[in-house]
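User: Show me a protein chain along with its predicted structure.
Assistant: Here is one chain, sequence first, then C-alpha cells.
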Amino acid sequence: MLAKLAEGGIRRTGGKLPLDDLVDAVLAHRDYNLALQPLPGGKRDSQNISGGASSRDDSSRHERQILARLAAAAGQGNSKGSKGGGKNSKGSKGGGKGKNKSSFLPKGLSEMANATAQDEKGNPICFAFNLNGCDLAQPGGTCPKGRHVCVLRGCRKPHSATASHKR
C-alpha cells in the first residue's frame, strides 16, 4: 500500500520524513483495517483469551492468517492489473501440505522422482553438489549450502544424484 501511495517518488522536504504522512494514510485505509479483523466463526480458547498457556502454533497460525489477508487486500485494491495466483490458484504447481514440493528444487533435480530439498532430519541438502559438484566440502560432509549427500529419498549416500542415478 505504501508503494502504491508513493508512486510519484519519495523526496525529503524540510525536516519531515517522506513516508510519515503515507503511513498514517495506510493505517487509516479500510483494506488495512479489514485485514486486522478476526476471522468469522473462529473458535476461541478461554486460555488464549486470558493470556494463559498460549501455544506457539496458535500464534504463528494467526500471524500467517493476518499476512494472507494483508496480501489478499493488497491484491484486491483498486488496481485493474491484479495478478493473484496464490497457493490455491488454478494452475499453480507444487505446493500444499504433504505433497512433493519439487518446485523448490533447481531444474535438474526437480525432474527426478523422490528428490527432496532436505534430509529426514530437516537438514538442507546442497544442490550444487548434486548437480555439478561443490568444492566447499567432501562427499558426505556439510558446506554452508547443505549436506553433500544424494537428494533422492531413500538413498542419501555421499554421491551426486545426477552422476549416480539415471533420470
